[in-house]
Each structure stands twice: as structure tokens, then as C-alpha cells.
């Protein structure tokens, strides 16, 4: 496994690999890797001759009052996981390698990014889209794998790749949970033991909506009211949003008539957690089944 820290070297190495006819599979991350990231690396390992991992805490996707300085970092642990998952190249740039002097070019995916996290984190997805586009170009990725826990992020990236005719296949990897149901996240380490226990309310709220949908409820306001009652019972959690939207467009809907994503964002202390589940075709997926919505199954190949 080779660790590369400069853009110039990464471009040179991956360009040479492409000339040799090698396909490059890529997993971009902000580090502090866990089993969810490892699952993405395993998907990517099967899709390319060369597996590239990037570790870069992207400052442009954090707002002025967000947790950039608190975002957990553990490069030594990340490299150990990378070796275990047979990663070939690890890209570990510093911000000045990605955003050089006088940097002024940004990508704004206007519609898909408006809702959910985009509404409460202005500029977040501009930073995400820009850094992902840059990384795809630097790595010369044939395929890139992103986690479905960040459902909106995946939708934004798919839209960007399609709109800009980028020659990269985008693949979604299923959300991975802890044994007790909490969605795996690098930010979980910032939770106090009490908040860690209370954070399970996210999964309980998702389960409530799934159960009602499985029983035949199709009215989105009814599903949301029931889920929000579950969230409201946990007074320590500050709800950012709890919404059910069309899985493909992220637009609002009133009735379940096709794949819909139920997405949550809840803050415990200084830690903001997101989670989601996909209600398929007006029903609920089987609990624990790694079923995905069509938007997550499809790949974008210009």
C-alpha cells in the first residue's frame, strides 16, 4: 500500500495506471474510518483493478459554526483499516493541495441540494460537490463508491456526474448500523455515553414509520406525525428535520406511491446525527434487509 500526499504525484501515478489499462475504483472519505467505510472499500475492491482511498477533512463543506475542529481524526487507525481491506493507494492531501492560492471555482447542484441538510447547512453541498469533482479528476476514477447513509449527498453527486458528463460510475453502498441499531458515523465518537444511548431514538422513529407503512398507511403526514411523536419523547435531542421525500428527486410528497426516503437529522449536544430509511413502493423494507431504493441501485455512466 502506498500513501500519497500530493496532487501531482497522485495524478501521475493514476494516469500511468490508466495507460496500462487498469481500472481505478475509488472511495473518498474524511477519515476516522469504521465498518461502514470498510464495507464501501469491499464494494470498490470488486469493481476495479486498483483501489484508491482518500482521507481528507474538507473544510469547504463545514459552516463557520460547525464542527471542523472537532471532527475526529486518526490517520494511523485509518491506514490499518486500509491495509486490512487491501487498499492500493491512499491519498492524504492537506487543504492547500486541494484549494491552492486564489482558489475561486465552485460547483453548485442547485435543486437536489436545497432540501434537508442543504436547507440547514448553507453551502455544505457546494463544498461537497466541488471537492468530489476535484478528487474524481485527481484520482482518474472509473468508479467511485459512496455510502447511502448520506442519502442526499449521494443524490447530489449522481446529479453532478450526470450533468457534467463525468466519466465515472457512481455506486451506493448500503447503510451499516451498530449492533443496537445506531447508524455508523465517525461523529458517534463525540457523543457522551448518555447521548449515545438517547441517539437510538432516530432508529425508533424510522422503525415507527416503516411499521405503519408496512401496515398499509400511505399518507405522509400521518407517517411523519407518528415518527415525530417518537422523536419528541426524547427531550435531549434537538430535531433539525424529519421528512419523507421522493427518493429520486427529494421533492416533497403527500402520499406514498413509489420509493420514498424518510430522512432525519437530530443534534445531541454538539453532535449532529443523520439517518434514513427507504420506504419502497408504498411499503417498508424488511427490517435488517439491505434493500436499496432505485436511485441508490442505479449507476450513472455517461
| Intertermini distance | 31 Å
The strand order across the widest sheet is 1-4-3-2-5-6
Q: What amount of the residues lies in strands?
A: 15-25%
Instruction: Kindly provide the radius of gyration, computed on alpha-carbon positions and rounded to a whole number of angstroms.
Output: 19 Å
Question: Helix-strand pattern, N to C?
Answer: EHEHEHEHHHEHEHHHEEEH
Biggest sheet record: 6 strands, parallel
The residue fraction in helices comes out at: 25-40%
- Molecular shape: globular
CATH architecture level-2 label of the largest domain: 3-Layer(aba) Sandwich
Q: Which stretches are low in confidence, meaning pLDDT under 50 for 5 or more residues running?
A: 281-302
Q: Structural class, please?
A: alpha/beta
CATH topology title of the largest domain: Rossmann fold
Mean pLDDT across every amino acid position: 92
Layout: helices, strands, pairs:
Elements lengths: L1 E3 L2 H13 L4 E6 L5 H11 L4 E6 L19 H10 L4 E3 L3 H4 L18 H4 L3 H16 L3 E5 L3 H13 L5 E5 L19 H6 L2 H14 L5 H13 L5 E9 L13 E9 L2 E9 L14 H4 L5
Helix pairs in contact: 6-7, 9-10
Q: Keywords for this structure?
A:
302 residues; three-stranded antiparallel sheet; Pantoate--beta-alanine Ligase, Chain: A,domain 2; six-stranded parallel sheet; disordered C terminus; Rossmann fold; 2 domains; alpha/beta; globular
